[in-house]
Specification:
This protein is an alpha+beta fold and 301 residues long. The chain is built from eight helices and 13 strands. It is 28% helix and 37% strand.
């Protein structure tokens, strides 16, 4: 079996996946397809073949969502930049493949100025399909400077303590309050435990519930409040042993519960690849964990 001199990208692939691909350039093709699949959050396939309108067959390093072609060039070994002619070859394939809407070109090195100009022109030339140049290379410590790798979240949950709240009935008028007092005396009741869950109309039919009142007239309070006081305003009736008494509202008081939870959000794995594209608005690090999971998924297809 023929062997080839390994590039830094090949060594990275071996570190992540545990083996070297048998063909030169394959490692970067798989890495590029995996990273772009992560960025786009779309299905991706490596090493696809399509037939163009000219009946020519094209090998695609990667295919994103069935309509984005990926061309990947690892020139790290020869320390060259990607040139205009590389992008022109891709444009020829794009023009001949009607199902492909644009091309992503990934490079482990830089692009020449003519290559960058050609890519820019492809986005405005009506006779061409757009080529988007992408810088994709192993990350460095310099890339990680100034980036957030860990976030501490202090989550404070503020809510009324309904179980320890106090309530009082606001009667529609003084006569209605006296009417209830008279009823209690006549009934020989010196203490009344009243559980109010529903409110009624003058015919004794349920028209509202306390639960709905909470939803329709939620208590308003500041984040630093220790208690909250207010009134649920409603013209209705309460029922005491099948007797109806008119009210205009329910006054409430609740203590406020403040519960704080702290948790840490960390990056999923160690920074491994750096991807940048001004056109796509991308400048980020990709971790080894995310890459391994995605590459395994792509290689399993």
């Amino acid at each position: 079996m023929a062997t080839y001199k390994k590039s830094p990208i090949d060594e990275l692939f071996k570190k992540l996946m545990g083996y070297y691909p048998t063909k030169e350039g394959t490692a970067y093709e798989i890495i590029s397809t995996a990273v772009l699949s992560l960025i786009e959050n779309k299905d991706a396939k490596h090493n696809q073949f399509l037939v163009g309108q000219s009946d020519s067959q094209y090998q695609l390093d990667g295919l994103i969502d069935g309509n984005i072609m990926v061309e990947a060039k690892d020139y790290t070994k020869r320390k060259d930049k990607v040139g205009r002619e590389d992008l022109q070859k891709l444009e020829g394939a794009l023009t001949d493949l009607p199902q492909i809407k644009k091309g992503y070109f990934t490079s482990a090195t830089e692009y020449t100025e003519p290559a960058q100009k050609y890519a820019t022109g492809s986005s405005t030339n009506p006779l061409q399909k757009e080529i988007i140049p992408i810088e994709l290379r192993p990350s460095t410590e310099e890339d990680e400077k100034g980036r957030i790798s860990q976030i501490q979240v202090n989550l404070t949950m503020v809510s009324p303590d309904f179980s320890n709240g106090r309530y009082s009935i606001l009667f529609s008028d003084e006569d209605e309050r006296l009417k209830l007092e008279s009823y209690l005396r006549d009934s020989g009741l010196f203490e009344l435990h009243l559980r109010i869950e529903e409110l009624y109309d003058s015919d004794g039919k349920v028209t509202e519930t306390i639960e709905n009142l909470y939803k329709q007239q939620p208590p308003e309070f500041a984040m630093d409040a220790v208690d909250v006081e207010g009134t649920f305003e409603i013209a209705a009736y309460i029922k005491v042993r099948d007797n109806l008494f008119a009210i205009k509202g329910i006054h409430y008081y609740f203590p406020i519960n403040n519960i704080t939870e702290t948790f840490i959000i960390e990056s999923n794995g160690n920074a491994t690849m750096f991807i940048k594209s001004d056109k796509l608005g991308i400048n980020k690090l990709i971790t080894d964990t995310d890459m391994i999971e995605t590459m395994k998924r792509i290689l399993a297809k």
